Amino acid sequence: MTTFQLVATPASQSLDRRPLSLNIVLCLGVLTLARLLAAAAIPLTEDEAYYRLWAQHLSFGYFDHPPMVAWWIAAGRTLMGDTALGARLVSVIATTLASLVIIDIGQTLGFSQRASERAGLWYNAMVLIGLGGAIVTPDAPATLFWTVTVWALAKAWRSGVGPWWIAAGAAAGLAALSKYSALFIGPGVLLWLLSSNAGRRQLLRPWPWLALLIAGAVFSPNIVWNANHHWLSFSKQFSRIAPSAFTPLHFLDFPATQFLLLNPLIAVFAALGILDLRRGGSAH
C-alpha cells in the first residue's frame, strides 16, 4: 500500500509504536528550556501586556479576541506569579505539546518514526513557532488546539472509532475560543470528507455531526458574550475580512507569504514530500 493510499484510506489495524528516540527527547527538552529562559528574561511586548490586563478580569470574550489567551496567562500567573515567565508559561509548554502531538499524528497516519519525529522537530523550525514560541499570543492556544483537532481526526480515520470525532469537536471548539480563524476548521473538514468516497460515507454516520454540535457547544459561551456586548469582538474581527475589491495580486501574495512563514527550506521539502506522496512514495 502506498503512503498516499495509507493516508487517504481509513483502517482499523493497530500501528506499531515505539517510544520517542533519545535525540528527539533531547532536542525538544533543549528547545523548551531555551524558551523558558527567554520567556523569563524578555520583557512583555505591548500585545502581551494588553492580554495580561485581560487576565486580571477573566471573561468569555474581549474586544479583540476570544478568551483563551487570557485564561492561559491567568493560569501561568497562578503558578509562577505576576512575571513575564508566568504570563508565558502555558504558551511555552503548549509549543512542546504540539510538537509531541504532531509526532503522533505522523505515526497514526502510518509514517515511520523517523519521518514523524522530523515533522515534530521541523514544526519548531517554522518562523512563527521558532521566533514566537517564547511569547504568549492567541496563536499559541489556537495552534495547539488546531493540532489536537487534526490528531483526533487522524485517530478517528485510522481506527474507525466514532468517539474520536467527539474529541475532535471539543478541540475545534477550544481552538475557536482561542482565535476566530479556527472557525475555518469546520469547512476544511467538510471539504476533506467530500473529497473521497470513504469520507462521504463518514457523513452518513452521526459522529461528524455530533462533533459539530460539540464544537458549537464549547464555543457558545463566546457567542453569548458577544450577544450581550453588542457583538463587539465579532464586529472587530469579522469586519477585517469584508471584501473591498478584487485584485489578482492576492493570489500571488498568499502562497508567497505562506512560503516565507513556513520557513523557505521547510517549504521546499514539504512540497517535494507532497509530490512524492502523490506519486506513491514511501512513508520513510
Question: Concise description?
Answer:
71% of the residues lie in helices and 0% in strands.
Task: Please give a structural write-up.
With 284 residues, the protein is mainly α. The chain has two domains: 18-242, no CATH class; 244-284, no CATH class. Helix content is 71%, strand content 0%. The chain has 15 helices and no strands. It has helices at 3-8, 22-41, 46-55, 68-80, 84-108, 113-125, 127-132, 139-159, 163-176, 185-194, 197-202, 207-228, 232-238, 249-262, 264-278. Helix 5 (84-108) packs antiparallel against helix 6. The chain is globular. The model is unreliable at 1-14 (pLDDT under 50).
Counted up, domains total 2
Low-confidence stretches: 1-14
Number of strands: 0
Q: Largest sheet at a glance?
A: none
What string gives the helices and strands in order? HHHHHHHHHHHHHHH
Average pLDDT rating = 89
Q: What is the rounded Rg? A: 20 Å
Q: Note the total helix count.
A: 15
Give the assembly state of these chains: single chain
Question: Which percent range fits the helix content?
Answer: over 70%
Structural class by helix and strand composition? mainly alpha
